[in-house]
Amino acid sequence: MITEHSDTHLTARPTNDDYRLGTEAYTDEQRTAVLAKLEGYLGGQRERLLGYQVNLSLDGHAALGRFLGYHINNIGDPFVDSNYSLHSRWLERAVLEHYARLWHASLPEDPASPGDEDAWGYVLSMGSTEGNLYAMWNARDYLDGNALVRDEVSGDASCRTTYLRAQHPDDNPNAYMPVAFFSQETHYSHIKAMRVLDIPTFYDLGGSLYPGECPIDVAGTGMQTYNGWPLGGVPTTGGDEGPGTVDVDALVALVDFFAAKGHPVLVNFNIGSVFKGAYDDVQGACERLRPVFERHGLVDRTVRFDPDDPTRVSIRNGYWIHVDGALGGAYAPYLEKARDSGLIETAPPVFDFRIPEVSSIVTSGHKYPGAPVPTGIYMSRAGSKLRPPSDPAVVSSPDSTFAGSRSGFASLAMWNHLAQFSEEQQVRQAAEVLRIAEYTAERLRRLSEQLRERGEFWAEDGIEVGHGDHALSVWFQQPRAEITQKYSLACVPLNLGGIRHDYSHVYVMPHVTQELIDELLEDLAQPGAFDRSADKDAQRPPLPHQR
């Protein structure tokens, strides 16, 4: 039985009929009533939302209501003002300066003439999905020989909207055919980006062009394969039973295989992966990949980018390293500072622009530090910036971002949150969030042992608790639907030894208190909390003697 601590989660759910728009207007009383119903529902859910990467400590944003009377639109480049005067670019630039400093990059003193190693970026109107899509677009154009902003092209080529690869050298037909690599823990937006941008993944290309030649052995792992190549991404360390970090040995072997075939490579790393909150060792992986890039001529290669003038060339690398820090990109730097100040003992691996191979980074502002609307940050090196397909005069600012109209309110919300906290406060908050995550993992492990000792039905062998180093995610066996609904727990099936195991996870974000974790544990300790025998398609965990 679920413990009743208050009646807020029993608030009536809104229905479609409450908000259906017809030919007649709602009266003020009707509109007020149905909006109050929505507010009541959201308030009840917010109190116990534990399963998703979003910070709900948003009290400081109430003062922004006065800006809802303006259409604030940051259309165009963040560093070049548009003739559209209702914008918040001053705040956007301040937010970008903050993240450039956090990620050890520098914005150019003169945005009109940045250095190749200077940073450029913008505040996203969507979350990191937009940033990942833009990064993949930039990477594709960079790797397949399209002109960049820094490149001078002839008049005809500058007007083309069709997608063209550069003319490959006679001795390497694969020179401008990039291949994408990402781990099995990578966010689904990357698959979406590959489909939209027509970038082949290593398993697509390997299974079709090089069947049976995969350089890594995944036999016995339970992974699905395509002609011997692992579907869904590069294996993670220890598979689904591991912490969720990319298997660097497997990644290096796969990259080496395709680099030897002449392909440029696009590698994604995760800093705070979707389900397990894992931190890939970006620095260690790049140190392993560096000699591979050098050995196969992917460092400082000559690219003929202008299809109308083959004498025009630029020097660029044949690799692009993207860091998807949707959660950890804004959190891990403060753990590093917390370690340096003695608040914690260790910190996640370095992932930012201190690593020379890193080309782009993205993070979601609504996840960490928190915002009332989806938003985020995209940042890359200015020397690798893609050339927009057009330069619309009506905007009067370069169309250098993915979106056309961009939410000026998102920049306002990001700035407002960051302006309320000193660096010391942010460092202490990060250390406290990690403490509560570790507390959650320890409480769940103790509960797992108690359930095993009492032979709890559907938890006879415990509840398989997992928690990676520095992760805000703690995962465990999926409980009954009433509990997952009460706490908005995300549920994901994992493959352990060829058997499906259903998991839920808790994400300890800044709004999550130790008291809320204690309430969850109280519910999970109740008899029958993990009995899902009445749930459709539920998979019963193996009994101890079946392991």
From TrEMBL:
Q: Which organism is it from?
A: Streptomyces triculaminicus
Q: What is this protein called?
A: Histidine decarboxylase
The record's region (Disordered) falls at 1-21
Gene3D superfamilies for this protein: Type I PLP-dependent aspartate aminotransferase-like (Major domain)
Record keywords: Cell cycle included?
A: no
For this UniProt record, give its keywords in alphabetical order, as a comma-separated list: Decarboxylase, Lyase
One annotated GO molecular function is: carboxy-lyase activity
Identify the SUPFAM superfamilies for this entry. Answer: PLP-dependent transferases
